[in-house]
Design a protein that fits this description.
The protein has 3 helices and 5 strands; from the N terminus they run βββααβαβ. It has a 3-stranded antiparallel beta sheet. The chain has a two-stranded antiparallel ribbon with strand order 1-2. The protein has 122 residues and is an alpha+beta fold. The protein binds L-tyrosinamide. The site of L-tyrosinamide (TYC) has 13 residues, from strand 3, helix 1 and helix 2.
């Protein structure tokens, strides 16, 4: 495992988080553990926006194929977007959310629909 930027390098043969301690009188080296400071990744909502032209069936297909919703859930989310203007398809890490947006936009344009798909910090 590579050394982390805010942690001292891990000497060979010692566990991560161990820092060289003091030498006891008998030569025993005491290692002190430094708590790891990894933050959980930020999460992003992927949303679909309503428009007047994209067929409802296409939106339901998108929610099933790209966001793995079942037919009932996909239909409910599509109707919520239709009535309220926007709706959450799922919550992902940044790279996954960005990839979903690109895939949905590409499929929509290929099918000739103006469907808009965006991501927002959750
Ligand atoms: N409003 C569209 C229609 O009446 C359906 C639709 C729903 C479009 C959700 C986009 O994100 C959307 N055909």
């Amino acid at each position: 495992m590579p050394d982390l930027p805010n942690q001292p390098p891990v000497p060979p043969g010692q566990p991560p988080g161990a820092v060289p301690g003091r030498d006891d009188a008998d030569g025993t080296v005491i290692l002190e553990r430094v708590p790891q400071k990894t933050e959980p990744p930020r999460l992003y909502q992927v949303l679909l926006l309503n428009d007047d032209f994209t067929p409802m069936e296409f939106v339901v297909m998108v929610l099933q194929e790209f966001f793995r919703h079942d037919l009932d859930t996909a239909t409910q989310i599509m109707l919520k977007i239709h009535h309220e203007g926007r709706g959450v398809c799922g919550v992902f890490t940044k790279d996954v959310a960005a990839t979903k947006v690109e895939l949905v936009l590409a499929a929509s344009r290929r099918a000739g629909h103006p469907l808009q798909c965006i991501m927002e910090a959750a």
